[in-house]
Structure formats: structure tokens, C-alpha cells
Amino acid sequence: MRAPRPVLATATLGVGFIALPVVGLLQRTPWSSLDDLLSRESVIRPLLLSLLVSVIAALVTVLLGTPLAWTLARVDMPGRRIIRALILLPMVLPPVVGGTALLFALGRRGLVGQWLERWFGLTLPFTTAGAVVAAVFVSLPFYVIAVETALESSTDDLEQMAGTLGAEPMRVLRRITLPRLLPAMGAGMALAWARALGEFGATITFAGNLPGRTQTLPLATFLALESDPEEALALSLVMLVVSLAVLIPMRDRWLPGRRPEQ
Amino acid sequence: MSAIHLAGTAHTGDLELEVGLSVEPGETVALLGPNGAGKTSLLRVLTGLLPLSSGHLNLSNHATDIPEAGVFVEPHRRPIGWVPQDRLLFPHLTVRQNVGFSPRSTPERVGQLLESLSISDLAAKRPDECSGGQAQRVALARAIAAEPEILLLDEPSAALDIDSKHLINSLLEDHGDRATLLVTHDPVEAATMADRIVILENGRVTQSGNLADVRTRPLTRYAASLAGLNTIAARATGNTATTEDGVVVVLGEPASGPVQLVVPPVAVALHRSAPDGSPRNVWEATVTELQPAFDRVRVVLTGPLPIVAEVTPASVDALSLAPGVTVWAAVKATEISAHPA
Questions:
Q1: Which of B49, B92, B104 sits opposite A166 (nearest CB)?
Q2: The Cα angle at residue A163 between residues A162 and A167, in degrees rounded to 5
Q3: Out of A160, A166, A169, whose CB is closest to B49?
Q4: Tell me, what DSSP letter sits at residue B129?
């Protein structure tokens, strides 16, 4: 289909709006000293930590989010709309507020945090685990939306069919529901991972900014911008490359827009 | 001891289903009725996908769905095999995995069913690689592999090729004690496969009995339309079929081998003189009997083809129809359907 000219023009503007900052970043990147910058520990440590935190957060999101999305899509229960609104809250809430809320709930003197410390000796704030918690908090809604939408758009005819063949509900879930849900789970996981990788506000508020423990790439970049702009550019480039490396192979199979062939 | 004993009501959409139905072990019952009569909903009641709102359902003598007593057996605990009209094969599993899906199936039984329905070659393929007839055989094998005591078939041979029909029919003939409830709109299928027919209209059973009962004493307009269908044994080659009396009939669609020709009585047009125009099948016949059938009159004819025509009372007057009168009967080729016998 040929796009009407005003639509095409505005769409081009949209692409430019995204591409321009990337070009700006590439243009200012100190390519000659890049080798040296990238081998610095102040770059490598946040990179490894960010990968660790975002991957664990994405996995936790899948574990928590899949049963949640299934329940919201398939179980008739009172207050479903309220629960759904609550789950979407971290998408809307400023991450700093999210981090503050986490601090008062899971902090050392928090609602649950004090018991975690007293009973299990577990402290979340200012630990890598805390950074994971902050990342899960902000990325869970992205995963739940992707999976719940997929579940709602597919009818449960096949699940009912499996039931009449004598399959217990757990077997139906394992053999029918989950295998058919894999593409949506992959898409949701990619979105959740991307959100976790970029997480800043909740992390710095709840987990702090400790190099090697909670200082992820976005935190390190923000700090380097003050002290060493060249390092900030190198860190930004690293995040750009990591993001593209993950998103480009996924875009056909898992990201919304183009459906895989049935 | 009944396989199915149902007396209850259920609601779905605008339809209220209020049905009494019993099926004995080993019995095959055909469920006929117009579109929207509730045939598929009735099957869903039996599977447990549509719970009763009142009344009771027993399957294999076990209380299965009695809302007043709080009894409801979940679908996966019912002794039922269901072949839905749209088959609902699992698209992400192979044919063999589909057929062996039920935890009650065994690999031996699965292999045997694949063999007897000629789908062994497809075992490693996915359902979207199967033709319609093959998919129907897979769906049937999957239901039977679960060793059900009650088999529910929803339009099992709608739009099937002849080979698939033969394979499915011969598998279903060997049913032992298994009860079968067969939803169909095809009276020939009902007559050939079922011991008894039940007619469902607007959510209620309007008539039950063997086809001969329904034929001689139709209780509703729909039953009359079923009962009145002309069936003629013939042998088809291409676009023509030859009856046992040697009469050649032109068909709308090619067929081959022994067939049952089905001609709806309303498709038989009567004329006082030889008609010209499109009908390919025209012959002279003698009226032997006039039978009132609700708002119509059924005209029984003898001649090359013993056939019944259904006309309005006005036509009876206009054509001066009476026993002994000779008329020209005409049937368009497209109105004659050939079903493999």
C-alpha cells in the first residue's frame, strides 16, 4: 500500500527522532581510544553486572509472570480488573517512586524487610539481589501484558479438547497451553529484559550505586557523564550494541508486529 | 444400565436445551435436527463443557452432572471420546502425538489405530499437512485411543472423500459395548450407521425411534422432510448412475461405484406435458397415492423410478393430480446427491 504523503512525512520524522540521538552518540564516540576505554574495569564491571541482573530479572519475570498472566486470562474471579490495574502500576509509576516504595516494603526497617532480615538474615537494599528485585518490579508488567494478550486472543477450545481426552489441568497446561504460548513468552521476555537492562530510577533508589554490586550500566553511564564524558560515551555504546545484538535476531520471531508463519 | 441417561436443561446463548435422552451400551444413536437446534450444545453437555442448569446426567451409571445435588464430574474424568465438528487437532503436535495424547491411550493401540485408518504414513507430520479427510481420521483415532465408553461424533463425514468415509465407517462398526452418539444432518448416514434416530428441534427432542417409524409417522415438519427423502440404490460412473432397474440418472457431481441417490421430494417437479428446458432427468410416471403432509401434499409415483414428490395443495388442483393420473416428473441433476453405499 502507498502511504499518503503527510503520513509518510510524519513517519519519517518519527524514525529520525529515534535515529538522531543514536547518530549523535556514534558521532561523538572516541573511536581511537575506544580499545582503552572498553578494557577499563569501570566499564567491564557494570557491563557484566547489568547482563547478570537483567538476565536474572527476565527469568524471574517469566517464573512469576506466566502463572499470573494465565490466571488473569483464564480464571473468572472477582476483582480481576483491579488486580490487572495494580500489575500495570509499575509501568506508569515513576521508577524513583517504585524504588522508594520497595525501600519502605523490603528495606531493613520495611514492612516485610525487617522480617526477612530477622528470620532469614536476608538484606535486599544495596545488594545485587536488590537490583534484581528493582528490575523485576519494573519489567513484570511488560511480560504479563504480552502473555495475557496472547492467551486472550487464542480461544481455549484446544485446552477443552485436551480435557475431554482425559488430560488433567496440569497436563493440559504443560502439553497444550505452554507450548502454544512460547512465542508470546519469548516476546514478553525480550520486552522485560530490555526494560530491566535500562532500569535506573528504582535501582538507584532501592539498591543504591555500589560499584560491582548494584552499579549497573545506566547508573555507571549517568555518573561517568559528570566525571569522564568519554567513558560515558563508551558505556552508552556498549549498551547500544548489547541491545541491538539481542533485539535484531528476535525481531521477526518474537517481537509484536510480524506474526510467525503458522 | 445405560451409557447415557440425561434429563435436564442447559442454557447457551439464546438457546434453552431441555432434553431427555437415553443411550444403551453398544447402541449407535443418530442425532438429527436443523441448524441451531442444539445438537452440538447437547454434545457439550455430555462432555462437561456446558454444565446443566437443572436435572441430571448419568454416564455409564455414574452420577455425572446433577446441579441440585452439587454433583459435577470434570470433563477429564468422564468416559467420553469427542470428535468435534472442527476436529480441534493440536497444531503443535505430530499426528502420532495427537492420537496418543490421552493418558488412557497406549502406544500399541495408537499404532493399531493409525494402521486401520491408513494414517501411519502421516504419523510424523503435523495436522496442517493433512487433508480434510485425513484430519478427520486423526481426530477419530485420537478419541478412540482414549478408550471411551461413549463416543460423540459431530458431523463425522461432512465433506469427506469416499475413502475416508469407508475407513471411518468400518472402524466404527467394530464398537463392542461402546455407545455412539452421532450428530448428522444426513438421513442416509443416520440410516446406515445408527440403530435409532433422535430428532432435536429448538433445543427439544421432537421424535425418537427407528428411521422406519419416523418415515411412516413424522411428528414435525422437519421429521417429515427427513422421512420423505427419496433414496435409490444405483451404480455410478462419472456423471451418470444406473439404477437396479437399468434407468440412467444424470448427476450434478461425478461419483463412482455403488451409491445411494438421494432426491429431496420438493426437488421433483410435476408437469402435465413433457417439459422443455434445463432438467436432465425427465420421465413419465403414474400417481398412485396422495398423502397430506402438514401444509404440503406428497405425491407417490410409480414408473421407471419409484419416487415421491412434494407439492403444494394448489399444485394438486392445478395439475388435477389423483391416483391413476399420468404426469411428467423432472429433477435437475444438481438436486440429486450420490452417497457412497
A1: B104
A2: 85
A3: A160
A4: G
A26-A32-A35-A41 Cα dihedral, nearest 10 degrees: -80
**Mean pLDDT (whole number) for A47-71:** 95
The verdict on a CB contact (< 8 Å) between B75 and A176 is no
Domain-wise residue ranges, chain B: 4-227, 231-340
Closest chain B C-alpha to A176 CA, distance in angstroms: 8
What residues pair up with B326 in beta bridges, in sequence order? B286
For residue A164, list chain B residues with Cβ-Cβ distance below 8 A: 47-49, 75-76, 78, 80-82
Distance, C-alpha B302 to centroid of its chain: 28
Which among A158, A164, A168 has the least Cβ separation from residue B82?
A164
Cell of A49: 553486572
ipTM > 0.95 (yes/no): no
Thinking of the domain B4-227, which architecture would CATH place it in? 3-Layer(aba) Sandwich (3.40)
CB B101 within 8 A of CB A168: no
Q: Quick check: B38 pLDDT over 80?
A: yes
| B94 in contact with A, Cβ within 8 Å | no
With cut-offs at 50, 70 and 90, classify the pLDDT of residue B337: confident
> B95 near B125, Cβ under 8 Å?
yes
Cell numbers 444424470 label which residue?
A: B250
**Contacts B101 to A, Cβ<8 Å:** 162, 165, 167, 175
Work out the average pLDDT over B125-132: 94
Residue B291: other Cβ atoms inside 10 A: 13
Q: Is A209 helix (H, G, I), strand (E, B) or coil?
A: coil
Q: How far is CA B194 from CA B26, B179, B183, B288, in A?
A: 11, 11, 10, 31
Please compute the mean of the pLDDT values over residues A141-155 and round it to a whole number: 90
Pick among B46, B78, B90, B110 to test the A interface (most A CBs inside 10 A): B90
Give bridge partners of residue B257 from the DSSP assignment: B236
Q: Domains (ranges, CATH) in chain A?
A: 53-216 (1.10.3720.10)
Arithmetic mean of pLDDT, B289-316: 86
In the predicted model, is pLDDT for residue A160 greater than 50? yes
User: Could you tell me if B8 lies within 8 Å of chain A, comparing CB atoms?
Assistant: no
CATH architecture of B231-340: Beta Barrel (2.40)
Give the rounded percent of residues in chain A with a pLDDT score beyond 70.
95
The reply to whether residue A179 touches residue B74, judged by beta carbons under 8 angstroms, is no
How many CB atoms are located within 10 Å of the residue B205 CB? 18
- Cα–Cα distances (Å) from A25 to A63, A221, A237, A239, B59, in that order, read 36, 13, 7, 11, 72
Task: Pick from B12, B72, B99, B101 the residue to mutate for testing the A interface (most A CBs within 10 Å).
Answer: B101
Interface test with B, best of A154, A158, A159, A161 (most B CBs within 10 A): A161
